[in-house]
Amino acid sequence: MFRTALRHSKADGLHLGEEPIPALAPGEASIDVLAVGLCGTDTHILEGNFPSADGVILGHEVCGTVREVADDVTNVAPGDLVTVEPHKYCTECTYCRSGEEHHCVNKKGYGVKLDGGMTTTMVAPARILYRLDPQTDPMIGAMAEPLACCIHSVDRLDPKSGTSVLIAGCGPAGAMLVALSKARGLTPIVVSEPSEARRELALSMGADLAVHPDELDSAEVSALAGEQGFQSVVDAVGRAGIARDLLNRIRKGGTFLVFGVAAPDDVLALPPREVYDKELTIVGSIINPYTHERAVSMLSSVPLDRIPTRVFPLSEYEAAFEAQRHGREKVYIQPA
Ligand SMILES: [Zn+2]
Ligand SMILES: [Zn+2]
After folding, report:
1. Enzyme catalytic residues
2. Which CATH class is domain 149-284?
3. Closest CA to 295 of 99, 172, 185, 142
4. Ligand showing the shortest atom-to-Cα distance for residue 95
5. Which of 23, 132, 242, 282 has the fewest CB atoms within 10 Å, counting from its CB?
6. Cα of 270 to ligand 1 centre, how many Å?
7. What ligand has the least distance to the C-alpha of 39?
8. pLDDT digit string (tens) for 213-248?
9. Ligand 2 mean position to 103 CA, how many Å?
10. Measured in angstroms, how far is the CA atom of residue 191 from the centroid of ligand 1?
11. Distance 84 CA to ligand 2 centre (A)
């Protein structure tokens, strides 16, 4: 049996080709991929800014139907609709042994260092597959992955209900953060976002106010947030200049969450005296430790269907990546 797969080589870029479907090893399953989301990580890989394996099949936000399972697999069966938690951990390093698998020194991501979902048939360990309600829209199923990352970031922020939050950036992940903040009882939820369409998305996801970044000093914002600023501030953009501005908007005792992925050489100037005086807490958040199952549980309660999407067949991968760069919608490839 053959599959079509989109592989990324460092020398030649993307290449779509036919290849045999790998034979299943013990514990593995094959999945007919119905939807695979593109995200910033994929773009960073194409630009050479993210460590990936040469020749890898891209795609780590995956939803599909189980095609076949190895004899010893019991958690999923052919025909099940599943989403993929796209990481492989070594289980032996100090992080794996202390409940921090996501910091594993030998961590490998499917679609980054291991073959991922931009193929008609993906092969993966069955233990990283999560069954979905069969009625789930495959694009919503594929959103379990970014939603799991957002759930982890809210865990890291650990805000008290009834406290204020400012979220900068309302792309698909920012929109999920808005919805999770709402579900957590945060109020007011203010979003800073230059795109009008994304400001409207923020409001539809539960924000109380969405403003252009130039209007963060407006009376409207301070009327909601109070003179002292926000208890929680989230950088969902990933740029030091924006982060610096956001730090000025945190109240004393507040928490700053770095969620967006900044360029490695982008430097934030933060005087220790400022951290001292304001008793700031600064937290980072990376990927999705033990949150994929919770994301699956929340798929139907978070209004993910309000995030605008655009769909391409696998053969139109170039147009899909182009659309991803423009960033107007959440872009999906439907290989099957
Ligand atoms: Zn991603
Ligand atoms: Zn490890």
Report:
1. 41, 44
2. alpha beta
3. 142
4. 2
5. 23
6. 28
7. 1
8. 999 999 999 999 999 999 999 999 999 999 999 999
9. 7
10. 21
11. 19
Domain residue limits, the chain: 2-143+307-334, 149-284
How confident is the model over 128-168, as pLDDT tens digits?
A: 999 999 999 999 999 999 999 999 999 999 999 999 999 99
Q: What is the CA radius of gyration of the chain?
A: 20
Positive or negative, the Cα torsion across 192, 151, 180, 330? Answer: positive
- Please write the tens of the pLDDT for every residue from 164-218: 999 999 999 999 999 999 999 999 999 999 999 999 999 999 999 999 999 999 9
Four-residue CA torsion sign, 184, 283, 176, 140: negative
pLDDT score of 327: 83
**CATH number attached to the domain at 2-143+307-334:** 3.90.180.10
Instruction: Please name which ligand lies nearest the alpha carbon of 108.
Output: 2
The count of residues in the chain is 336
